[in-house]
Design goal:
mainly alpha
Length: 435
């Protein structure tokens, strides 16, 4: 997708014509009007900062809620009254790590192609291409599920090959066979979310994530503490809640049918699938470098969980690592939310052929990311004695985590700037440089 455009703004009235009058409410019209981009020949620093933050906050909230089940699972499993409590925590941690490496990071990484394609398409006023890119995403991410399924069904063997504790590896393998089924629903939801974000429609996804987390929390608590599933209850709860994510998104689209502008008025189902298949190479061209950027970041941290299993007291080390991973995921949701908002804003500007505004957006993004990283580091430093108590109850694990968390602040400062730099490359369609 190039940044060249035939128009500096999207004709909102043209979009509204696509919907029948009876199907468009005031709230729906407001959502559609968010697609409109005001051409700005003289970009203003304050305006761009406010615009970036307004777009970023709902995305950050959505991501934080999407990452929350991982932290929930550790917290719920970590308080089960069982002599195998520490082994359960380690198993849930290693299983989550393996799912991240073999499934989530691949799907989320490939879907970053949508950040570039959809944002520039909206900026150029060619919303009728959004459906085609969505269908290309379905083809690409759908093809990734079978390999992920096979890998997770054999997670125990991979963990044993990495010299993990046999008891923990067996428990993690059982956990993975359940949790891997959360991927199809999450992938579909991720693609829908990318298309809506490109249109600056972000609040509904935050509400959907809230509902999904409520479902997860209630199911996880009940299944872990009041059924014979024990720690596996957290895996079943996550699978169910993730499967409901696209269901809730489709309910929203039924109420607010903005999807009707995603395809040409004269399109046919067969022609659109042919067009989507033809654009799969372009999707891979952008998605694979984006995936590699994400894999290097995710895998670097997940490898630490594997290395923790090689230490003198592996059960204690993995418990500490599980808390650090959970807290890092929440901090990462802040940085990634700013990153996605930056990519959308930058892609819109380039698609509308506004290079001066794009340059200002880049500067604003780097400054905001630095402030966010400093804030997170300060919070971790001040609260490092209290945060571990939320996740684990073993005294030795708590003490070790408190010490590790105080040293963790340096990583957060580096991570925030890395996310900001990646967002600029994605917005320009230059993922290959970052990879």
């Amino acid at each position: 997708m190039t940044s060249r455009s035939r128009s500096n703004s999207v004709d909102v009235s043209a979009l509204l014509v696509v919907l029948t009058p009876s199907s468009v409410t005031k709230h729906q019209q407001a959502d559609l009007e968010k697609v409109h981009l005001n051409a700005d020949a003289h970009p203003d620093l304050r305006q761009e900062t406010v615009a970036l933050l307004q777009l970023a906050f709902p995305i950050i909230a959505t991501l934080a809620l999407e990452f929350l089940p991982g932290a929930f699972s550790v917290a719920i499993v970590g308080h089960i009254d069982s002599p195998l409590r520490k082994e359960y925590v380690d198993a849930a941690t290693l299983s989550t790590m393996f799912l991240n490496i073999s499934g989530l990071s691949i799907g989320c990484g490939l879907s970053t192609a949508m950040d570039t394609l959809c944002s520039q398409t909206v900026g150029a006023g060619k919303l009728y291409n959004l459906g085609m890119y969505f269908q290309s995403g379905l083809i690409v991410l759908g093809s990734m599920f079978l390999p992920s399924l096979i890998l997770n069904y054999h997670a125990e063997y991979f963990l044993l090959a990495l010299h993990q504790d046999p008891v923990v590896a067996a428990l993690a393998g059982t956990y993975s066979r359940v949790s891997v089924w959360c991927l199809p629903g999450f992938f579909l939801y991720e693609l829908l979310k990318k298309v809506l974000q490109a249109q600056n429609i972000v609040h509904p996804m935050a509400y959907i994530a809230i509902v999904s987390n409520v479902v997860y929390g209630l199911l996880g608590y009940y299944m872990c503490y009041y059924t014979e599933l024990s720690f596996l209850g957290a895996a079943y709860a996550r699978t169910i809640s993730n499967t409901l994510l696209p269901v809730f998104a489709l309910i929203y689209l039924t109420w607010n049918p903005v999807y009707k502008v995603w395809w040409p008025a004269d399109h046919s189902v067969s022609s659109q699938w042919k067009a989507a298949l033809a654009h799969v190479p372009e999707f891979f061209t952008l998605g694979i470098p984006g995936m590699l950027m994400m894999l290097m970041e995710w895998w670097a941290f997940e490898v630490c969980a594997v290395m923790a299993g090689w230490m003198e007291d592996p059960v204690l080390a993995i418990s500490v690592q599980s808390v650090l991973m959970s807290l890092s995921a929440q901090a990462y949701s802040l940085f990634l939310g700013l990153s996605i908002a930056t990519t959308v804003r930058l892609g819109n500007a380039l698609g509308a052929n506004e290079p001066h505004r794009a340059e200002l957006i880049s500067r604003v993004a780097l400054g905001v990311a630095l402030v966010a990283g400093a804030f997170v580091s300060l919070v971790f430093l001040v609260t490092h004695e209290y945060l571990p108590l939320i996740f684990i109850s073993d005294p030795a694990s708590i003490e070790a985590t408190q010490h590790a968390l105080a040293m963790f602040v340096v990583f957060e400062l580096i991570d925030c700037m890395s996310c900001a730099a990646q967002s600029l490359l994605k917005g320009m369609g230059k993922q290959a440089i970052g990879a």
